[in-house]
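Q: How would the structure tokens look for this protein?
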Amino acid sequence: MSIHVTEAAAEWYKKELGISDGEAIRFFARYSSGGGLHPGFSLGIAVEKPEDPIERTEVSGITFYMEEQDHWYLKGHRLDVTYVEAEDDIIYRYETTE
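A: Here is the predicted structure in token form.
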């Protein structure tokens, strides 16, 4: 499991969420009627400080992480977060690592 966030995506989060250097974004599994990597669940985000991170990366002054309790969601996968300028939005891609 790993998390990769491009600098452009990190800057998009700063702008969209009104956050600044030194803050953190948590990725977590949330129940959803849609489907992401696992049917019935999707990836959620929250601006909050890490408590028990299993994975973390820092990009453009922002810490992106996932807590131990949500490890199952990305187990065996790499999360790639990229910015798409034409849509002024970010996309999540999951790459199998096992």
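The chain has a mean pLDDT of 92.

The two ends are 9 Å apart (CA to CA).

Upvote if useful.
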